[in-house]
Amino acid sequence: MANIVLHVRKNIRIDLNKLAQGDRTAQEQFDKLYEQDRIDGANGVPVAERGLRCAGICMTRNVVAWMYLRKQPNGRREAVHEHREDAERHTAPMSDEHKAYQARIIRAAEEGGFQADTEVRTLTAPRKWFQTDAVVENGSGLKIGWEIQLSSADVAGPRSIRNRSAKALQYGITPAWHTDREDLARRTETQWTRSNSLPAEVIRKTGMLRVVSGFRALDTWTCDHRALYPCPNGKITRCGKMHATPKPRDIDFDGLVRKTAAGDVVPVEFLDGASVHRFWVVTSDRERYYDILGGAPQTRGVEKTPSAHASRNAPTCRPQVTLIPPQRTVDWSDRKHWDAARLPCRYCGTATNMRDLQRRPSCKVCHEEHQPA
Questions:
Q1: What predicted TM-score, i.e. pTM, was given to this entire model?
Q2: Segments making up each domain of the chain, as ranges
């Protein structure tokens, strides 16, 4: 849901709070846009191409969040976000502690000479976005995507930590999850780091912020009679092979931000029998460990199991009628796709005489680029 919706092409802005108060003008504007949205939905026009944008919290945070309109059986008028993460921005406001961590990441990165920004959206496919709390770049292609998780998190499904971490890797972002909760820090679906629970004003300070878990040293050793550790293979007698044992190691949060961006601290997947533990180590430790294994262990992929509360289908405002199969191929030589009036293209805004199948102004190139494969 949203409280304000803007039609970017018609420049119509509707405050849904006024709708609830019975404002006649707002109701008439909503009904006008709603009828067009129903027609677009019936003709298979994607939500992101209908021109309705959230003009509330999303716009204030520079996030382009597309919407569709609907009416409830009781007559209630609603504007609905296309994506769940955009809707959550309205119902689950960011805590002061979360904002403080974002600000600290940016400050630590910039003091180390790195580029950084918050609420970064990465275009992953047509009309698909992947959002990260903060991204730090070193200028040589390495991107560290920081996610601050101070509340409970899904174990399975498309919004789970494991799935989001795998997607970040897929799109060239190294995920770095930070929390102040012990239950999250004990989980192994990604490389978690943890600091003690602190108020926002303390997190913002320039003094040392200690990372109490998630960063380790790897002690490599030969499994012989002089070894201090038991053989991890369960051998009563020594196997004579090289092994590695993780040990807790201190690091401050600002140093972690800068060293991960520089590539001096890297994520590792540590095999312990049938279990996999994920944490951060210095680059030399990971290289020695992977030499012992004969290469990096296979990374776990994106989950295929959907969340119990998530729909497989994209939101749509299609009315309960027989839908007209969308025609996507346009014969531009046909005179019906030309008009004497030059109007702004619905995609790029350039004046054009061309019209698409719905007689909307559209450049030939723009129209074909925005059609689904």
A1: 0.59
A2: 4-91, 96-293, 335-369
